[in-house]
Amino acid sequence: MHLDIITPSSKIFSGETKAVQFPGSEGSFEVLDNHAAMIAALGHGQIKITTSAGSAPEYFSVKGGIVEVLNNNVTVLAEQIVK
Predict the structure, then answer these.
(1) Three-state DSSP state, 36
(2) What is the CATH classification number for the domain harbouring 74?
(3) The total number of structural domains that make up the chain
(4) Tell me: the pLDDT tens digits for 32-81?
(5) Which of 8, 14, 31, 50 is the one with CA 20 to 30 A from 21?
(6) How does 3-29 read in b/e, with b if 16+ C-beta sit within 10 Å?
(7) What does the pLDDT read at residue 47?
(8) pTM of the model
(9) Residue 83 and residue 69: Cα distance in Å, rounded?
(10) Considering only CA atoms, which of 66, 65, 49 is closest in space to residue 57?
(11) Segments forming the whole domain that contains residue 52
């Protein structure tokens, strides 16, 4: 699936992923390939990105935002991201 992480100032990440974990406003959740369509609010915490089997995950700290999952594309509109 394709992931884009965007802040008001720039695009932080764009690429293919196997799995992404998010800090939701009501608890953490994970999105995998072919996930059902959804929109969710993000809380404060870490986004964990797994790009391929065996590779080290990437982490980004997020301070709120929105995530949309649609047609195997995941878009994060974040208020603030720190790598």
Answers:
(1) coil
(2) 2.60.15.10
(3) 1
(4) 999 999 999 999 999 999 997 778 999 999 999 999 999 999 999 999 88
(5) 8
(6) bebbeeeeebbeeebebbbbbeeeeee
(7) 97
(8) 0.92
(9) 22
(10) 49
(11) 2-82
